[in-house]
Write a structure and sequence with these properties.
Elements: E1 5-9, H1 14-23, E2 29-34, H2 37-49, E3 53-58, H3 64-71, E4 79-82, H4 104-130, E5 141-146, H5 159-179, E6 184-191, H6 197-200, H7 212-224, E7 229-232, H8 234-245, H9 248-255
Parallel strand pairs: 1-2, 1-4, 2-3, 4-5, 5-6, 6-7
The structure holds NADP nicotinamide-adenine-dinucleotide phosphate (NAP).
NADP nicotinamide-adenine-dinucleotide phosphate binds near residues 16, 39, 198 and 199.
Length: about 270
């Protein structure tokens, strides 16, 4: 797989940072995006110390024109990894007769970051890659977005997170079927819990929790093999697919008993 020039969003933390470090080596140029300058610079320094060339970009993935301006002015791109994302769940009812809820601001932010933010990364990258020559393996480039096992189920604890991740997965896999002809791989990562800062505040058991470095290696192996959907742990994804086939009331009766199924169990996201 040719990946001399790589662009990563969400490179200041967690999976994006781990992918950047795993890829960092002499002869490779990494374009790293994130909002937090201090943490992004930390990733950049660690990648440079491994011999990679690095350019950082302070950017918010919800800024469509800013993302286009960044991605479309870099020249050829071999690999783009859309990792930026945020999570959170439903809150407890505020009055005795009301229901668990997600604040409107949270719902809109999750869709803006986890869905529009992915499109703001993937669409300009597709524009760039369609105009670059094919490599020795017949590929023009590879684009990968991080979805989630949460996107496989209608989980009452994380409705808007799951919905945005489901949309990302469907878009990447379905559009990828068309883009194959153009020599561009579109890939979706359907993963379970990873041990990153995103989950560090969780105070509940996380079945199948995967070490982020193992996750990075699994993702890169899948991309080398041109996998359009990279899934791990398989048992968790298979169980989730099965649950989604059940009548919703039956599935909900199970979900609601899970640690993350009830309102107020997920840490509140930083929406500042
Ligand atoms: N951790 C898990 O268990 C898990 C499971 C399944 C899927 N995922 C997905 O994997 C991806 C990476 O998550 P993670 O676990 O690595 O989380 P993380 O450690 O919290 O990192 C999230 C990254 O996203 C960036 N980000 C968030 N909002 C952004 C915005 N508006 N513009 C630009 N960058 C933004 C953050 O950068 P700044 O702070 O610099 O803005 C940070 O680098 C996410 O898409 C997440 O949904 C995670």
């Amino acid at each position: 797989m040719k990946h001399d020039t790589v662009l990563i969003t969400g490179a200041s933390s967690g999976l994006g940072r781990s992918l950047a470090l795993t890829l960092a080596r002499p002869g490779r140029m990494l374009h790293l995006g994130g909002r937090n300058e201090t943490r992004l610079l930390e990733t950049a320094r660690a990648c440079i110390s491994r011999g990679a060339g690095v350019r950082i970009r302070l950017c918010d993935v919800t800024d469509q024109s800013g993302m286009e301006e960044w991605i479309q002015t870099l020249g050829p791109l071999d690999l783009v990894l859309a990792c930026a994302g945020i999570t959170g769940g439903t809150r407890k009812p505020t009055k005795p007769d009301s229901a668990p809820y997600e604040p409107d601001e949270q719902i809109r932010r999750f869709f803006a970051t986890n869905l529009d933010g992915v499109l703001n990364t993937v669409l300009p990258a597709l524009n760039v890659m369609q105009h670059q020559p094919r490599g020795a393996d017949g590929m023009r480039g590879r684009i990968c977005a991080i979805s989630s096992v949460a996107g496989l189920v209608s989980y009452p604890g994380t409705p808007s997170y799951g919905a945005a991740k489901a949309a990302v997965d469907r878009f990447m896999v379905a559009t990828g079927g068309n883009m194959r002809q153009a020599g561009i791989l579109l890939s979706s990562v359907v993963c379970g819990f990873l041990n990153t800062p995103m989950t560090a505040r969780n105070r509940f058991p996380m079945p199948g929790l995967t070490d982020v470095e193992n996750a990075s290696r699994r993702i890169l192996r899948g991309l080398r093999r041109n996998e359009r959907r990279i899934v791990f742990p398989l048992w968790l994804a298979a169980g989730s697919r099965f649950m989604d086939l059940l009548p919703i009331r039956l599935a909900e009766a199970y979900y609601i008993r899970q640690p993350t199924g009830s309102a107020g169990s997920m840490p509140e996201p930083d929406l500042s």
